[in-house]
Design brief:
Layout lengths: L8 E4 L2 H12 L2 E7 L5 E8 L2 E7 L8 H4 L7 E5 L3 H10 L3 E8 L5 E6 L5 E5 L7
Parallel strand pairs: 1-4, 5-8
Antiparallel strand pairs: 2-3, 3-4, 6-7, 7-8
């Protein structure tokens, strides 16, 4: 069976501010940030402990293309496997992040929490790794 790789793609009204927040609160590292002709972030790639996400500035749906069919910014939900959710939780709180589900020991063995980024996307971090099951 071939291995598949998934990279979540998120859209932000202010992608530059989102990149700074994701770096400060979660520890993402920007690897590439490409500006469009208008100076907005057209495409960015960020890493987190071996994983990748991509993001960009949301455009008006009337511009056509992907923006005409994409969900509005702030509607994504991402789950990220981490070894130490407690330390990351503390980092998010120290950065002023909004915790919407506190650190919880789940009945299926995970310890996790969920935070909302400044534009409304939900980020869950936990020890449950479905690929290891």
């Amino acid at each position: 069976m071939a291995t598949q790789t998934f990279h979540p793609v998120l859209r932000y009204r202010d992608a530059r501010a989102a990149i700074a927040w994701l770096e400060r609160a979660f520890g993402f590292q920007p690897k590439a940030v490409h500006d469009g002709d208008d100076g907005a972030v057209a495409h960015a790639e960020l890493t987190f402990r071996g994983g990748w996400i991509m993001l960009g500035t949301a455009r008006d749906p009337s511009a056509g293309g992907y923006d005409a069919v994409a969900q509005p910014p702030g509607t994504a939900s991402v789950y990220v496997v981490v070894d130490d959710p407690d330390a990351l939780h503390d980092r998010v709180v120290a950065a002023g992040g909004e915790i919407v589900m506190p650190l919880t020991d789940q009945d299926y063995g995970s310890r996790d929490f969920t935070a909302r980024d400044p534009e409304g996307n939900l980020w869950s971090f936990g020890t449950y790794d479905p690929s290891a099951a």
